[in-house]
Amino acid sequence: MIKESLVKALSDQVNAEYYSAYLYLAMSAYADRAGFKGIANWLFVQAQEETAHGTHLYQHILGRSGTPVFGDIKTPQTSFGSIKEVFEKVLSHERMVTERIHKIATLAQQEQDHATYGFIAWYVNEQVEEEAAAEELVAKVSLIADNPGLLYNLDAALAARTYTDPFAGNAG
Ligand code: OFO
Fold first, then answer.
1. Mean pLDDT throughout 159-166?
2. Whole-number mean pLDDT of the chain?
3. Domains along the chain?
4. pLDDT band of 1, cuts 50, 70, 90
5. How far apart are CA 149 and CA 19, in angstroms?
6. How far is the CA of 37 from the centre of ligand 1 (A)?
7. Element (H, E) at 164
8. Distance from the alpha carbon of residue 127 to the mean position of ligand 1, in angstroms
9. Burial annotation 8-23 (CB, 10 A radius, 16+ → b, else e)
10. Residues 13-37: what's their mean pLDDT?
11. What is the CB < 6 Å shell around ligand 1?
């Protein structure tokens, strides 16, 4: 049986992951409407991953005989000034998510909930990858932002991203 403190923290993170999905959908819509279909694709796949992250947390709560707590998902930012701004926002958002995940890991330790601590370790590692990917994109866009031709090259590269279930094979 999972403690209520962790049910609350994990439920809040379900909400945060679904908010992340919503934010990335809003960014994807902006990129699509601006003509960057590849960047829109990358952000859409990102949104799909966030939904999977949220659902996996929800399943962990239920699997430990907890009752998930539901709340409003806040409205994301929907207008952006540039593709560069979008990726800077992705990076700052992922850094914020990393802080949230680390707080859950710390709480799991304090509560001596070893199952949740082991479970959340997947998210700790995932955030390292999320931040690295976002940092790389910010660096690239910062270099080429004033060159529309190069931005379209990046757009073409990001069109290749496809969604795969991050928990296929029971990871996490
Ligand atoms: Fe769920 O990893 Fe991004 O936010």
1. 97
2. 96
3. 4-70+82-158 (1.20.1260.10)
4. confident
5. 33
6. 22
7. none
8. 7
9. ebbbbbbbbbbbbbbb
10. 98
11. 17, 20, 50, 53, 94, 97, 126, 130
